Amino acid sequence: MLLKTFTQQLVLLMLIVSNGVAQPNLKPHIGVDSPPHASDPICDIPTYLGNFVESGYAEGDTVADFTLYNAAGDEFNLANILTEGKPVLLVAGNYTCWRFRDQIATINSIANYYADVLNVFIVYGVEAHPHLDVSPYSEYVWTGERNFTDGVLERQPTTYGERIEVIDEMLENYGVLPEILIDGPCNSWWLNYGPAPVNAYLISPEGTVERKHEWFQALPNDMWCDLGNYLDNMSDYCNSASNLGNFSVTLDNADNTVYGTAGQVLTVHTTIQNLSLTDNVQVNVLREQVDVPQGWQTSLCIDICFNSSVSSSTVTIPPGGSQPFVFYFFTGNQPGIGHSVVRFTNALVANNEHSEQFTAITDVNTSVENVKENWSVFPNPVADQLNVQIANLGHAMPYRILDVSGRSVLAGTFSHNLNSIDLSSLPAGLYFLSDDKSESLLKIVKE
Question: For the whole model, what pTM was predicted?
Fold first, then answer.
């Protein structure tokens, strides 16, 4: 048996040499050695808050060999695939990452266009934005608005079989052309080639990284251009425009302030527009002057959504294109007000910049309506003087101003139909106005 195995290996080696194909020189094998069972539990998934540029392999590195299986149980071994003499494009994917879903069409086009000279695989692994479960790229639940909009509300699989079920649902809604290889129950591929939700590696037949995208096809990274240069077969899809465009920023919300209850995830939406029809625009985005209550976190979402530790990013927008930008407030369990300034600057064109302050205001997580019979308050939010109009006030009425803990911070008496309360002594925050006996409260926002 050993002799037969040795003979088979020798024949394979002779075939490889006779065909002029170099044997790949890979790092030791990782992952599974046999098809996992559907009942195999998914190992604990660590939280990764690091930089995707630094995770996994760098350009010029030799990658590890691996064996993975598709949903039908067919085996795919990297070393064997590379002996075909074709480079391999590996793209990490998961259904709950809307960045991956948005790139499926591009991945399919690349696989089709370069079918004769390139092997393309999607490696399916850890869910980036599971519903009701903590994201592996943050310390909190981060389902994401896009997933609610798209109806992609998947839990983090707890077994290998559940991971296949999520893939099946994805395939019902999206046509995926390349073969989908499923990371093993202990996520060895994700841990070695990542951790990252949608990174990509272009690997030479010798097993070295020719090009790495920490985010697949996120400009200025362009896989069409990278493949065209490497394969000496440039397509018309390569975006090679210069980056001398100008941009503008507009608010999609009614204003830059959002309201909600304590513990909610609140978002402010803007759009960055490339005003040039001939040039890309490269925009630097910087989160600064963050002032939020203890227990709150904020994050940037610009084409790619980052965990709260990332305070800056750069996005390249194609000619005439637009890019949604979402600022996230992950609020705490106590009511409060949070602010942050985000500065947008043109990386290559001076004086093309924009700053915006985003504000989130939360109240107690109870039913508090800003409606009280015969009462109206204005302006609200208020800077100093709050006006309170009470219809048909026939007698003097005591009132109280309460802070979010229910403590009385101001008190007085209404004597007229139109009254004014001086709030200049109070710090900015959320307050409640009530008469001295009623449990019905009016929300007041002090700027």
Answer: 0.71
